[in-house]
Amino acid sequence: MRNKMLNQIREVKILMKNIPALSFSLFVVSVIVMNLLANKSISIGDGAYLCLDCGILASWLSFLSMDIITKRFGPKASIEVSIIALLINLLVSIIFIGAGFIPGNWGESYNDNQFIINTALDNTIKGSWYVLMGSSVAFLVSSILNNILNYLIGKMFKKNPNGFFAYSMRTYVSTFIGQFVDNLTFSLIVSHFFFGWNILQCVICSLTGCLIETLFEIIFSPIGFKIVNRWTKDKVGQEYLDFIKGETK
Fold this sequence. Notes:
Blueprint: H1 2-18, H2 21-37, E1 41-42, E2 52-53, H3 56-73, H4 75-101, H5 114-126, H6 129-155, H7 164-194, H8 199-233, H9 238-248
Antiparallel strand pairs: 1-2
Helix pairs in contact: 1-9, 2-3, 2-4, 3-4, 3-6, 3-7, 3-8, 4-5, 4-6, 6-7, 7-8
């Protein structure tokens, strides 16, 4: 057991050393930003079944990052990176909560009602425990599902598995299902129990959100495909891949 844990720690260390810093940084930032922006809803007319939040502006980037990492490093590596990103997000949330309790004035409060704006911004930056819990559980479940689906779908392509068609199919399908599960899990935990949404609202809003987020994936997937090819050509992560091969023998 002890040797297994030490090997796992070593594996994660090698993985973090092999993943390009910029890619990992963008992934972590997208996770933090999408959870922060989830505090603001997007109003589209008066239809209750079309309510979205601004988190969709960044959530597509987290799924795109996971798909790229899964293609090059495998689903296990992508899941490990997702857990690390989630832990960093929780740390940032704790910092935000601390900042929300610290007495002081926000810059915008000098332009209007000081008390109302300061209270509103403090409450927003601190967030609610159930929103943080819901977003954390939803991201963890959906990221594991997305990464495994992406890998399994890729294994179905025996002919030209590294071509753009194979890459696009594994990313589009896994993102659509993963985003739907992410949105639905969050809706069921938070919106249904705390905001009074019915199940139909949760399902339709989750579907609406994942359609838009998958559209982002379709638009930016050519960039992800080029990144994966560049990583393969430059043998990015070769040390980690060799380590994994040695472990599985």
